[in-house]
Design a protein that fits this description.
Low-confidence stretches: none
Number of helices: 1
Largest sheet: 4 strands, antiparallel
CATH superfamily: GSPII I/J protein-like
Helix content: 25-40%
Structural class: alpha+beta
CATH architecture: 2-Layer Sandwich
Distance between the termini: 111 Å
Number of domains: 1
Oligomer: single chain
CATH topology: Pantoate--beta-alanine Ligase, Chain: A,domain 2
Length: 129
């Protein structure tokens, strides 16, 4: 019996199985990349919101515990905790006070995307002349 050119059924099944494994691996990598890409966009929005809030802190954003939502930053929520540190710092006729703050930003504040911590010097309203 003469052999004809072409592939056997077994060879086709093996080739199909190898291709399926390769495509599955590629799709898995695409999913990881997409999740990381979306996470980086959210982190950028959280960083921009954090910069905005810390810039306003003590000026038009009162130094005190508070929470809020920022629709202009993709609906991110934020939570600010402020702790006054001991001692006033006299500068001229004004008195300044040092505060420690922690700012959590994310859609779920139980697992924030970003947490910023720092200190802010603000005028003490009780002792300003």
């Amino acid at each position: 019996m003469k052999r004809t050119r072409g592939f056997t059924l077994l060879e086709m099944l093996v080739a199909l199985a190898i291709a399926a494994l390769a495509i599955t691996g590629w799709l898995s990598l695409q999913g990881d990349f997409s999740a990381r890409w979306l996470g980086s966009e959210e982190l950028q929005r959280a960083a921009a919101l954090g910069a905005d809030l810390t810039d306003r802190l003590g000026r038009d954003l009162p130094l005190g515990d508070q929470e809020g939502r920022a629709p202009e930053f993709g609906g991110l929520r934020w939570s600010l905790r402020v702790v006054p540190l001991d001692g006033d710092i006299p500068v001229g006729s004004a008195s300044w006070h040092l505060h420690s703050y922690s700012l959590a930003i994310g859609h779920d504040l139980g697992r924030p995307v970003l947490t910023l911590k720092g200190r802010r010097l603000a005028r003490n309203p009780e002792r300003n002349g």
